[in-house]
Structure formats: C-alpha cells, structure tokens
Design a protein that fits this description.
alpha+beta, two-stranded antiparallel sheet, 112 residues
C-alpha cells in the first residue's frame, strides 16, 4: 500500500477529484492549507502588487493499493497541472498495514 499526499491549487480541486473518481479512487481526505513558495515577487493586478509568498492550497491524503499508485499519480498530475510555477507537489510513502475499525480486518482489502 502507498500513501499519496498532494498539495494542489484550490482552483484545481474539482478537476483532481473527478480525475481520481475516474481511476477508481473514491475515498480520500483533504483540507485547506497555506504554504510558503519559492516565488519572491508579487503579482500586479490593476496597478496593485499582491504578495504571492503565502499561497492558499489544498492538501490531499490518499492511501491506495500498490496497483493504483501509478494511475492515481498520473490522474493528479494530468488534472492539477497548469504548466505554471506553483502547480504543487506529490509525495509517496509506504504504508505497512491498514485496519478496518468496524470489523478488525487488516490488509489491502480494508481500502475497498
């Protein structure tokens, strides 16, 4: 099993959610976060410079069976990308075990 964490633009969340559902990933957790980016200069809108250092993002956390790892990552990249700086990051780590609280069963079937 793999834990996939993604930090994406809030404006892309709906696209990412639909892409994940399309590849069969129907359960994940998400929350709004604020991050610090590498971009140091602000954006100018109607003559006013706005700081882009503190960036509003959405953080997604998913645990998938190994056979869903590539499809999940590909779906996030395809749907969250805009080609601009600040599209986000994906982190993947191994999960040793999972348990279903209601029944006490363990293993990859708990993710279904």
């Amino acid at each position: 099993m793999k834990k996939i964490e993604a930090i994406i633009r809030k404006s892309k969340f709906s696209d990412v959610k639909n892409a994940l559902h399309d590849v069969g990933v129907n359960f994940f957790t998400y929350w709004d976060v604020t991050g610090q980016g590498h971009e140091k200069e602000g954006h100018v809108y109607r003559g006013v410079t706005y700081s882009t250092c503190d960036i509003q993002r959405r953080f997604l956390s998913l645990v998938v069976n190994d056979d869903y790892e590539k499809a999940t990552i590909d779906a996030i990249i395809a749907s969250a990308g805009s080609g601009e700086v600040g599209d986000g990051k994906i982190f993947v780590s191994d999960i040793k075990e999972s348990y279903r609280i209601r029944t006490g069963e363990k293993g990859g079937d708990t993710l279904k």
